[in-house]
Protein: Os07g0174766 protein
Organism: Oryza sativa subsp. japonica
Amino acid sequence: METAGRAAKGVVLRTALRPPPPLDAVITRVVQLRVAETKHLEHLRTSAPRMSRQGQLIC
């Protein structure tokens, strides 16, 4: 309803102009982000002991 009111005033939200992405694209992106997050956390987990031995880890 709010979007219709804005459209009547000549103000249309950018998101109202384009349809949402296909579900498979959303799922693919979520999987990509989770894989990247997992790799990052694994890197932190494996590099933390090495960095603490070198005196570089700041807690």
